[in-house]
Design goal:
It is built from 11 helices and 19 strands. With 394 residues, the protein is α/β, with parallel strands linked by helices. It folds into 2 domains: 241 residues, TIM Barrel (Alpha-Beta Barrel); 105 residues, Beta Barrel (Lyase, Ornithine Decarboxylase, Chain A, domain 1), CATH 2.40.37.20. The strands form 3 sheets. Strands 1, 12, 13, 14, 15, 16, 17, 18 and 19 form a 9-stranded mixed sheet that branches. An 8-stranded parallel beta barrel has the order 2-3-4-5-6-9-10-11, surrounded by 4 helices. The mean pLDDT is 95. Pfam families: Ala_racemase_N. One of its GO terms (biological process) is D-serine catabolic process. It comes from Paralysiella testudinis.
Amino acid sequence: MWLEQQYAEVFRQTPKPFAFVDMAAWRQNFADLVARCGHKRIRIATKSIRCPDLMRTLAGHPQVDGWLCFSADEALYLAGLGFNNLLVAYPTLEPTRVTAVCRAVQQGAQIVLMADSAAHLRALNRLAAAAGAVLPVALDIDVSVAFPGIYFGVYRSSLRQAADLRALLAVLPDCPALKLCGVMTYEAQIAGVTDAHNGKNGAYNALVRLLKRRSLPHIRAWRQEITQILQASGVELAFFNGGGTGSLASTLADAAVTELTFGSGLFAPALFDGYQDFQPRPAAGFALEIVRRPRADVYTCLGGGYMASGSSGRDKLPLLMYPRGRLLANEGAGEVQTPFRFSGSLDWPQDNFALFRHAKAGELCERFNELLLLDNGTIAGRAKTYRGDGQCFL
């Protein structure tokens, strides 16, 4: 049982489709994630939420010190809403966007752009100088680990070893319009790879856990070396960022890291059911209308094709939570209809709803203008998503 009994009338009576957040689970997940961060500062990953009103419920916590954005446009949008200390996780060299960030910085916004190459630094310096600004930047440093025959990580940054970092730091004196203020070392292979996934066999999960254990000493040693190189170069950082929902425990123990990031664990999407070390409470989902019963044990929903990004696979499909049936292999989740097989008791059309969880977190919000905030058995409020506020960044 998930929420189908506590909010049965809400799900029956509210026009579908709609997306929702269980606020009790949201609050509990936030408390659990904060506890896993110890006393370190926290930077919230905004792309995992994509709903300003929900983000505001976190902003007052004393450890929440900033926001990790996924594009410069998103950072500018959030700055306009009053959010501050905005780190853009992915580089951009698009002149209009960079110039807009420079102007916002000149007007008092705290926005930091990302770089990992000399080409990034030189282009950003040229644009910042033309705008008459001093632009804060951070370096994205790769912490993937190459094992024999296995590259465990993601192809993210060109800064992979000490020589790369030293060479890039040597470019900074030629970039007077830039201010290096931080580094990011996101260990995607720890934070974002499930190691107890029901859809994988035991050998796969065991291999992932082994690779994670073998990766951690490499990551810690590399972060320590990064710190030493920066200190030797006279660089004083405002932050050293690391972590994700799936790696908070190991990153907390890393002395080099001054702030931790999480986001997806707040919604606890379906992919996050597959971690050994923690089990957040499912907090977000969507309801579809059951409109057909083409067979005695097959029901069909209107809509539902909300797939997750990344490599394709069944784990990127929405997860049917109620009724406890299963999607049909040949149809999956379709744009206009999503059939599922269920042989139990369902009083259709009186019971006219099916509940799903998206495989990922914030991507759910790209399909809905608002989130219904469920609390104490009723709809306690409605919160606009980025989409509902007319925003689409990528």
